[in-house]
Amino acid sequence: DPTAYKTLQEKQALVGRLHTSMSNVIDTLCHWIAMKQEKLECGNEFGSEVQATVAAVLTRNMSLCTEKKEALTALVLDSVNLDVPKYVALRGTELHKVLKESIVRDYDSTFARYLEDARRAYFCTLSVLHN
Hints:
Blueprint: H1 8-40, H2 45-81, H3 94-130
Helix pairs in contact: 1-2, 1-3, 2-3
């Protein structure tokens, strides 16, 4: 349940765990597909092309998730950077509050998109395994 995660750090930890798991599964599947494709190239050109297309879709889905994960990491760093000693004078001001709220809002919307992309990649992976 994504709403159980309150802080950016908790959400980022979830993203890290999800991303690592997805990456491991997709890397394994792509390796398996490449081995299968190699066998198919010996006489089934159509089957080989299908396998290449499936691997490309899995890789694209993982790339989308990676891009969002990197954006989320950058937002967490932006939030942390607002609290470093260099910005002590900024703390407690309206500007600091607005900046923090903006970062949290951006993070939450990107987090929701990341979870949706991860869900889509998960179902795409299940579809590949089923077929």
